[in-house]
Batch of 2 targets.
Target 1
Amino acid sequence: MLLLALLYWRNFRGMLKTIKKINTNIIFSILAVTAIVCFSGNFGSGNFLDTKTAFGYGGTPPLKIHDQQLSCLSEASAIITWRTNKNATSRVVYGTKNQISIGAAPNYGYEFSTIKNTNKVTHHSVVIKGLIKNTAYYFKPISSASPSVLGGELAFNMADCCDPVVLGEEGEPILKITKSIAEEFANPGDTDIEYTIAVANTGNLTAFETLLTDTLPAGLNFSDQEGMVKTWSLGDIEQSGIKEISYLVDVSADAKPIVYINKAEASASNHETVSAEANLEVRAVKVLAETGFSVKDLMVLLISLSVITGFIMVLKRENS
């Protein structure tokens, strides 16, 4: 950093001498172009300039789908989760026949499709209901950040989802709970981070008076209320039924850079408590004191000014 500063000062002194001999219109033109490039990012936020984009090499990485998972919620419903390397939409196409070759959009050869969730996130979760029990299905997640990208095919036989019900035996509910977060990580002060909880009854008897409770760790807050605990009354959940809750969470401005474990619990009057956890990593934003610049911002600024100096030197030679 010290070496960069010394180089900058040397070039800056040369630039001051050169400015006196060059047409001011040319200088202002150069400064204007540089300002447009540099300030097109979020100045002072740690994302001051994407040098790969601004200087014409590299470019935006393509959208990729990874960490695909499929979980059975009941004999007639399932949940598909996956991650993307940048914010994108969520949709799942599926059917009873696997697709060796991809067909035409929008379903790419599959029989069914969920409704596209246009909320762009990196952690995706889609619940699929109305599946036929004892039937094999093939699922393929799709995300779009222009253009659309298809994930790998996931296969599952709904017959493997739940234990068979033996006629004549007394029934009982079986509650299952899953929890996911729309973001892979957050920064202190971030708001409206979406959490989703799904509670399903995979048993052969209704779960009566089902309650869902979510407890936040210190450093996280519900966006729409004060307090660390929130409770929802889900009512009765019938056999193969599922209920889904989404809510928003804010990260405190003074939150420490750690992994925050968020726990949700569901219970019914005729069922014991079941729980699920979701982890949110909070990362600190590194900025230089009192300036609002990150280290990356300062380095790019120095490089940009050096480029300006180079242009001026070239013009000096042409005008001499």
Note: Confidence is low (pLDDT under 50) at residues 36-58, 163-169.
Target 2
Amino acid sequence: MFRRLSIAFLAVSATLAGCLPGREVLSVATVGVGRWPESVIFDPGSGRVFVADEGSATVTVLRSDGQRVGTIPLKTRARHLAVDPRLGHLYAPNEGSATVAAFDTLSLVEAFRVAVGKEPHGIAVDPVSHRVFVGNEGEDSLTAFDGRTGRVLYTVPAGPTPGGVAADPVTGRVFVVSVKADRVVALDGATGQRLGEIPVGRGPTHLGINMASGMVYVVNTEEGSVSILDDRGSRLRATVPVGNYPLAVAVDEKAGRAYVVNNRENTLTIIEEAQLEVRAHRRIPRNVSSIALNAPMGRMYLTLKSDDQVTVIRVRDL
């Protein structure tokens, strides 16, 4: 009897071993950035990495290998950024001045500034139409503008406390997290017309999108889960438990995987899109606030908010 129980225990342990985080993933480079780096994005057009430094109201610019290129001063802090690789524009919401500044991704010179709503926060770009969408957290609205000229197209209601924003260039839809309503609002990106609302988990904050498959990933920070939406039908496909206080997500479109940062347990959850389930958990540094993926080079960038650093890891080491 004892032998049978021991064999069963070992079998369960072996099954769980692949899901439990082990040693911390090795870093290939770590670089100092501005104060309190809140978010990071990779621009495939310029091959650069842009970091929103919340505490110093700057954007730190890095090469893909982590080497510093320069620093962009902002009028007020930005917590999120977006890029249009085809236009070569970086967009930074200036939360304290109700504007979004557009910069050239190579020269780092400001091209124009757009007046939007109060406390602009989440931001996304449709790289086909070149529309830019920004959630105005202070007035529960979404502003859309032409990313080429800065001309405002419309401002529409977006639900209580708009958070993360994502745009799908295939359908032309834009998605906005309504943090206090535990919903995602779907809008027509061309007109701002509301197409519907999708209930998700508790305390949603950020979004990621697979532009190839149309799957939308909703990070439910308070619930410790990720809701996966089918963009083509705008319906909930699954809600997947991840870790404690998930804060950010990056999507590998070709591999069909999503990487979720669990801030309060210092882990990274890997979700397989085809199976809609967790593949593995990996140990990462403490207090990671954001993640960006450079899929062609197999690199991942993590912002270490407490240490004012960005660390670079290899996807193959996960």
Note: The longest strand covers residues 37-43.
